Amino acid sequence: MNEAPTLYLCLGSACHQRRGYRLLPLLEELIRRHDLSARLRLKGAFCLENCQRGCSLKFDGRIFSDLNEENLGEIFAREILPRCQPT
């Protein structure tokens, strides 16, 4: 059985100052809404070393930057959701 992929949310000090902590409950809700709890793990990351580009996520080897409460849903739907669908 394959292990579920992991989505990392940067919670380092720079992202925290940019209110990245507000993205955590939004991501939890998106995962719940799309019934991905068994197919996607969400973890906090101390630092994704992408501080200059705003709040960041790492998924499937890619970094998604400049995230905020307004664009998170769109990025989740476009970049993360398709990679979590059963094959």
Description:
With 87 residues, the chain is an alpha+beta fold. It has a single domain (6-84), classed as Glutaredoxin (3-Layer(aba) Sandwich), CATH 3.40.30.10. Helices cover 29% and strands 18% of the residues. It has helices at 13-17, 23-33, 72-80, and strands spanning 6-10, 41-45, 57-59, 62-64. Strands 2-1-3-4 form a 4-stranded mixed β-sheet, covered by helices on one side. Strand 3 and strand 4 form a beta hairpin. The chain is globular.
Summarize the structure.
This protein has helices spanning 13-17, 23-33, 72-80, and strands at 6-10, 41-45, 57-59, 62-64. With 87 residues, it is α+β, with helices and mostly antiparallel strands.
Give me the secondary-structure topology.
Blueprint: E1 6-10, H1 13-17, H2 23-33, E2 41-45, E3 57-59, E4 62-64, H3 72-80
Highlighted features:
87 residues; alpha+beta; Glutaredoxin; four-stranded mixed beta sheet; 3 helices; globular
Termini separation (Å)? 13 Å
| Major sheet size, sense and barrel closure | 4 strands, mixed
- Adjacency order of strands in the biggest sheet: 2-1-3-4
How much strand?
A: 15-25%
Q: Could you please say which CATH topology applies here?
A: Glutaredoxin
Give the CATH level 1 class. Answer: Alpha Beta
Low-confidence stretches: none
Q: Any idea what the shape is? A: globular
Backbone structural class: alpha+beta
User: What value does the Rg take, in angstroms?
Assistant: 12 Å
CATH superfamily label? Glutaredoxin
pLDDT averaged over residues = 89
- The total of beta strands comes to 4
CATH architecture: 3-Layer(aba) Sandwich
